[in-house]
Amino acid sequence: MSVLKRKNSYRIIGFMLIVIGMSMLPSLFTSIVCKEPKQTLSFSATIVSTIVSGFFILLTFPISEEKAKVRDGFFIVSLCWILASLIGAVPAFASGTVPSYVDSFFETCSGFTTTGASVISTPEALPKSILLWRSTAVWLGGAGIILFTAFVLPFSKIEGQKSARQEMSLQRVGKLSIRLHGTVLKLFRFYLFLSASLVFLLYLGKMRFFDALIHGLSIIGTGGFSSFNTGMEKTGTPFINLITIAFMIIVGSNLNLWIRAKKYGMKVFYGNKEFKFYILAIIAVSVLIAANTYAAGIFRHLHDAAMSAFFQVSSMASTTGQHISDINKWPTFSKMLLLSVMLIGGCTSSLAGGPKFMRILVSLKLIRRGISKRLHPNRVFIISLDRRELPQEVVTNIANFMFLYFFMLFSGCILLSINGFDLVTTFSGVIACLNNIGIGFNLIGPAGNFADFSGFSKSVLSVLMIAGRLELFTLLMLFSPHYWNADRV
Fold first, then answer.
1. pTM of the prediction?
2. Per-residue confidence at 177, pLDDT binned at 50, 70, 90?
3. Which of 36, 91, 326, 461 keeps 20 to 30 A from 286, CA to CA?
4. In contact, 438 and 117? CB cutoff 8 Å
């Protein structure tokens, strides 16, 4: 039986439609309060049609006793992201805020994938309801859809743990295994706590409440959306910048560690090599960039150079994509260091995109093993992490992922080169979307956007954003003929 013939698969779609529709209610309320009639009409129509469709599907397809296969999880997770982006693009397009549906889809897809890439030149000119919906999409993409998928799938007799694990990389490494109802609920509570805390602290730092809400939702979801074209450059006081740095580092780290720290203390951080690598990389790169930009005369004061460096490195490492300075003006050495951080991404079990620090650690160990094997052919070399041997299957999967990652990276660059933009814009643009960062260099730097890219290029980048958010294999499996052959899966 194919995935589309399973009644429970349709029920998941129904639940997802209801969640998306209800998540637009705050934006609808904002459009009414701010007297935005076009947005009120577009949000109302989208909400009603989406929620009604969701309930219709639930009533049409009752819970079935069919036992779903693993591949159903891949299909449901991918479909959730695609449908959410397709539906979420309607309000901005229908209201005329964004005249092209391709642009509106790109913007919304960027939100749900927590990328933060934009085609909007002046966010200040957008209706407040659309601004709120953009950040809401980022927040939902960061955890809402993940948790929705994890909770709804088991109730429909689909193996939700395997599906959720594909999206959030909550694979078992040592004792960091997901217990669906326990750990996911704790993650959700922690996510809500972080969201509320950041919004409150930004507001406490003299940021207007609406702007604090926009930036808070976006930052916690690791997205780069802002209510200003200059990002947080004008609104970022030293207090706000330090708070933002701290929260970006947290959401880019392994969230399971923070939950376990409540029970076992700070030792869970000391014993995790990936977390230590993550923190040391941020500190080392930040110090180098601060010294380089200060020596180059980009900043008059060393403390300004240090603040900007730590902010941008934390932003890139967590794939948040927020900014407080124009990195296009930085020296080449600083740009290359930032690019290196962009290529890695955050930690496993985080909300960040990219290959993740753990995969880089294992890849470095594989390189060392390859060198040692040539020097000592008869010795047995074991790949371990945190004093635990990694199963060969895990090591192989990581190697396969890294190969696929660079294949997609260079394939994306070739496809985008059709635009005729410079190499730096093209290369950093693909990294920005594939790793869900949102900003790059040159034309797509902090002061730029993706508006000048062709419709074809925006479509390619949208696919890269979804693929990157779904850990590559989850989405690409749908294009395999073997996936749709029930006898082979």
1. 0.89
2. very low
3. 461
4. yes
pLDDT at 174: 36
pLDDT of 180 above 90:
no
Block residue for tokens 């690019």 = 339
Residue 249 and residue 313: Cα distance in Å, rounded? 10
Phi and psi for 175 in degrees, rounded to 5? -100, 10
Residue type, 352: A
Do 239 and 335 touch, CB atoms closer than 8 A?
no
Task: Residue count of the chain, please give it.
Answer: 489
Cβ neighbours for 283, distance < 8 A, ≥ 6 positions apart:
none
d(CA 448, CA 65): 52
Question: Percent helix, strand, coil in the chain (nearest 5)?
Answer: 70, 0, 30
Those residues whose C-beta lies under 8 Å from the C-beta of residue 338, and which sit 6 or more positions away, are 285, 289, 312, 313, 316, 327, 330
CA distance 308 to 293: 10
92, 97, 98, 100 alpha-carbon torsion, rounded to 10°: 90
Tell me the DSSP string of 286-321. Answer: HHHHHHHHHHTTS-SSHHHHHHHHHHHHHHHHTT--
253-276 burial, b for 16+ CB within 10 Å, e for fewer? Answer: bbbbbbbbeeeeeeebbeebebbe
Residue 389 forms beta bridges with which residues? 384
Which among 76, 72, 16, 20 has a CA at the least distance from the CA of 48?
A: 20
316/344 Cα distance (integer angstroms): 9
| Spatial separation of the C-alpha atoms in residues 395 and 380, rounded to whole Å | 15
Q: Tell me which of 230 and 192 has the higher pLDDT.
A: 192
The pLDDT-based confidence of 66 (bands split at 50, 70, 90) is: low
E-assigned strand segments in 292-394: 384-385, 388-389
Q: Assess whether pLDDT exceeds 60 at residue 160.
A: no
317 half-sphere exposure, CB direction, 13 A CA radius: 31
Q: How far apart are CA 434 and CA 449, in angstroms?
A: 16
Written as one letter, the residue type at 190 is F
How far apart CA 335 and CA 147 sit, in angstroms, is 36
Which position has the token pair 């991404």? 345
For the chain, the C-alpha Rg in angstroms (whole number) is: 22
Q: Which amino acid would we find at residue 230?
A: T
Q: What are phi and psi of 228, to 5 degrees?
A: -135, 145
